[in-house]
Design goal:
By secondary structure, the protein is α/β, with parallel strands linked by helices. The chain has 2 domains: 187 residues, Glycogen Phosphorylase B (Rossmann fold, 3-Layer(aba) Sandwich), CATH 3.40.50; 180 residues, Glycogen Phosphorylase B (Rossmann fold), CATH 3.40.50. Strand 11, helix 12 and strand 12 form a beta-alpha-beta unit.
Length: 374
């Protein structure tokens, strides 16, 4: 049987977020006898050393480079990608993220390559100009298959006028075995120094939509009831300076640590007593899955795709977004109830095992690739 050639196209300018971690975790799970998988990332960071392409190369994966860093480079990027599709005889072009979707849609025209678009975001989260969004919609509508990462994203696509018959929901997953292998590792970090304290943790890029400012603002109330509480935020992003100022204004330098990006979050998750995900917008939330895989009880905001992961009162609790009072109240309640926290953590792990494994995600995508390559 001829191998199906798949090319993943992303447009990650900076670090490694949920989409990138998902692709990296999937990379060694494909059926090698049936699939030949390659990767291409557009718009690397300004230093030309994007963390995601570097991680791909370090794993020994097939990586294709296409130059260009500005919107005006889109036409030339599309031409170069078309040459690659034709030369390599790519069967399926798998598009992730807005700019990758536009470039991929343009490049695929006139070739034998089929496209599948995974929507990791909703239209409202995009801050691009209207004409950029229209190109994204155009390219997505031309795809043979559209994958939504949650039912919430699927409904958003339908409301935008996309054909519901072309939309498949594939919830993201996480590699449980990787967590089990790494959870016992000891990492020289802020977390390792604070084992004797009650540790609240959160993982995510330091952007406005992740709501870390709200979690930091809730800390003074939390400390009133749990004086030995400490907050660790794992991630990097454009809001770092603003969050550091917020920490200083609230006199929390000793209680709150921004530990930066970590390629392996399992050891840090193992240190946490409670995982908190305070997002304002969240189409899904891979970091929540990782916390549940590590048997951590979750406090999360009840936004968009999050209720599809966290079961209220079973694997954690949900609070309204932008509500520091409700957030601090639930955090304090769980920190003061070890049995409930542990019970919810165990239930979260079982839920990941039953519904959100990386193996299930890969199998569902492989089925799509096979159908498109027929």
């Amino acid at each position: 049987m001829k191998k199906i050639k798949v090319l993943h196209l992303t447009s990650t300018r900076y670090g490694i977020g949920g989409v990138e971690r998902l692709l990296l975790e999937m990379s060694d799970k494909y059926q090698v006898e049936n699939f030949d998988v390659a990767y291409c990332n557009l718009f690397c960071d300004e230093e030309g050393e994007g963390k995601f392409p570097t991680a791909i190369r370090q794993k020994g994966l097939d990586y294709i480079e296409i130059s260009g860093k500005r919107v005006r480079d889109l036409p030339s990027m599309a031409r170069n990608l078309r040459k690659i599709l034709e030369y390599r005889q790519i069967d399926v072009l798998h598009l992730h993220m807005l700019q990758a979707t536009i470039v991929g849609g343009l490049a695929q025209m006139g070739t034998r390559t089929s496209t599948v678009v995974t929507k990791h975001y909703t239209d409202g989260l995009s801050r691009h100009a209207a004409w950029i969004k229209k190109l994204d919609h155009w390219s997505t509508k031309r795809a043979k298959c559209i994958v939504a990462i949650s039912d919430y994203v699927r409904q958003d696509l339908i409301q935008l006028g996309f054909n519901s018959n072309k939309i498949t929901v594939i919830h993201n997953g996480t590699d449980i075995s990787e967590f089990d292998r790494n959870v016992a590792l000891v990492e020289s970090s802020k977390a390792a120094e604070l084992r004797d304290r009650v540790l609240i943790g959160s993982v995510g890029s330091l952007t406005e939509r992740k709501g870390h400012n709200l979690l930091i603002a809730a800390m003074p109330r939390i400390l009133e009831s749990v004086p030995n509480a400490h907050l660790m935020i794992v991630g990097e992003g454009p809001m770092r300076a603003e969050l550091e100022q917020l920490i200083d204004r609230n006199g929390l330098r000793e209680q709150v640590a921004l530990v930066g990006f970590r390629e392996n979050v399992a050891p840090l998750l193992s240190e946490m007593d409670l995982y908190v995900h305070p997002s304002i917008h969240e189409p899904f939330g891979i970091s929540i899955l990782e916390a549940m895989a590590a048997k951590k009880c979750v406090v999360a905001t009840s936004v968009e795709g999050v209720p599809e992961i966290v079961l209220e009162g079973i694997t954690g609790v949900l609070v309204p977004p932008k509500n520091c009072s409700a957030l601090s109240e639930k955090i304090v309640s769980l920190l003061q109830n070890d049995d409930q926290r542990l019970r919810m953590g165990e239930a979260g792990r079982r839920r990941v095992e039953e519904h959100f494994t990386i193996g299930r995600v890969v199998n569902e995508y492989q089925a799509i690739y096979k159908s498109l390559a027929e």
